[in-house]
Each structure stands twice: as C-alpha cells, then as structure tokens.
Specification:
This protein is mainly α and about 140 residues long. Helix 2 packs across helix 4. The longest helix is centred in the first third of the chain and has 28 residues. The radius of gyration is 16 Å and the shape is globular.
C-alpha cells in the first residue's frame, strides 16, 4: 500500500471512529457516569482505535477486540512506548475496553464470542500486565 493510500484510509477510519466515540460517550453519560469518567474512557479509546490500531496498517475498531491486539497494546505498547502510563492506566484501559466492546457488541459490530475472548484475555493477563508495568517503572539499569 502506498503511503498516500494509507493516509487516506486512516483519515476515513478516524472520521468514522470519532462518530462512534461520540455515540459511545453519550451512552456512558446516559448510564450516569461522571463527565470526568466519560472523558477518560473516550480519550483512552480514542488513543487505542485512532492511534494504536492505525499504527502499522489501517484497521477498523472491530479488529481491536482480538486478544492479540489487546495483549500487544496493554502488555507491551502501553508499557514500553507510552511513558505517561502507569498501573492505573492499565486498569483504566481494561475497564474502558470492556465497556467499549460491549457497546460494539450491542451495535452488532462484533460477535459475542469476540467480546467473551476480550473479557477472558483481560481476566487472564491483567495481573501480568500490571506486574510488567511495575517492573518497567522500577527499572534503574542502564538505558
């Protein structure tokens, strides 16, 4: 794929994603979540679907439900590449991803088995991601 084609596809996906994120944020508000919590989830999901999932190739948000993508993001990318992250960040992303992909399931954009896989991946891997983040933040060896 040529670079210009990549950019055009990413631009199209981002526009669609922004509409999706706005609808998601409205749903969270309607469920009674605070404005601060809604904005945190919206911002986190914006980073996940509009930056991480588009990093290598243009991917729709549906692709982000896979255990592979979630594990790569929370177990590596967020820890090693996002210096603003901490253990709380992983916890926030786990909660937000489950809410977002439940929303996607309810909109028939993903299948139930995919959502169940996401929840299982988070359940099985969360403690490992938190441990990895702690080790990374405590590291004082040579860079």
């Amino acid at each position: 794929m040529e670079y210009e084609e990549y950019l055009a596809k990413c631009k199209k996906i981002r526009k669609e994603n922004n509409d999706l994120l706005n609808t998601f944020a409205e749903l969270l508000k309607d469920k009674g979540l605070s404005k601060k919590t809604v904005e945190k989830h919206k911002s986190n999901l914006d980073f996940y679907i509009n930056e991480f999932l588009l990093l290598i190739e243009p991917k729709q948000p549906e692709a982000g439900v896979s255990g592979f993508e979630v594990d790569h993001f929370l177990g590596y990318y967020l820890i090693k590449k996002c210096m603003w992250g901490g253990k709380h960040t992983i916890k926030d992303y786990c909660a937000g991803l489950k809410k977002f992909y439940k929303f996607m399931l309810d909109k028939n954009r993903i299948e139930d088995f995919e959502y169940q896989e996401l929840k299982e991946t988070i359940k099985e891997r969360k403690s490992l991601w938190l441990e990895e983040m702690e080790d990374w933040l405590d590291y004082d060896g040579p860079w």
